[in-house]
Design a protein that fits this description.
The chain is of the alpha+beta class. Helices cover 41% and strands 24% of the residues. It is globular and about 60 Å long.
Length: 227
């Protein structure tokens, strides 16, 4: 992969923590507000009348937003505008996207062939009482492995993800995800990683990614659009 491509990938996935440009900034603010609402819904014990009123208000807000222009990331790829606005589209991704209400979001720093991500999971991600859902932890582990692959200057798609839960993953405490590229075998990349809480390893992950060049990536999403 040429150096310009590597720099593009690293820049695309190194999302800014703060943006001043509107409407990107305002979309992030909306996502945070929706996220906060979702987390509050999980534990609320409001009465029936209040819940009925609030549900109606939220539905009206959703109808208002549905009437505004919209374009998916898939539409951007197929329309040829994705690359020009790549960071904003990455900002929509689950787990890392500040423009996605379901994201914690995890804050990622890229190394040379590694990545470190930090986040705190609230009650929106609860599985067992006080514990994060294992599927959420796996998704975050997958994301940090993908970031490590980008840090190494490659792009690919997950084909294998194996996770071992050593200890329960707590809610409301900072989690640190680490991942690194172990080796390359042809068109397959092997990665490994851990998740820590208070410097204690609470899960381990191993992953395989298949190399995907830009032309193949476009073909994959085109097939997805065609069903």
């Amino acid at each position: 992969m040429d150096e310009s491509r590597v720099l593009f990938l690293r820049r695309m996935w190194s999302l800014p923590r703060v943006v001043s440009e509107r409407p990107w900034r305002d979309k992030r603010a909306l996502a945070r507000a929706v996220h906060r609402l979702g987390a509050l819904v999980v534990n609320t014990e409001a009465g029936a009348d209040a819940l009925e009123r609030l549900a109606g208000e939220v539905e009206r807000l959703a109808d208002t937003l549905a009437a505004e222009p919209a374009k998916s990331t898939l539409n951007a790829v197929l329309g040829g505008t994705y690359v020009a606005d790549a960071s904003r589209h990455v900002d929509r991704i689950a787990f890392i996207g500040h423009s996605n209400p379901i994201s914690p979001p995890i804050q990622i720093e890229l190394g040379e062939k590694s990545a470190v991500g930090r986040c705190t999971l609230d009650h929106l991600y609860q599985g067992a009482p006080g514990i994060a859902h294992g599927g959420i932890v796996a998704g975050l582990a997958d994301q940090i492995c993908g970031a490590a692959l980008v840090a190494a200057g490659h792009s690919g798609l997950t084909t294998v993800l194996e996770i071992r839960y050593v200890k329960p993953t707590p809610l409301l405490k900072e989690l640190v995800f680490e991942a690194w590229l172990e080796r390359e075998e042809g068109a397959v990349y092997h990665l490994a990683g851990v998740c820590k809480s208070e410097d204690v390893v609470i899960s381990r992950v191993r992953a395989e990614f298949a190399r995907v060049e830009p032309e193949k990536f476009r073909a994959i999403v085109t097939r997805a659009a065609e069903g």
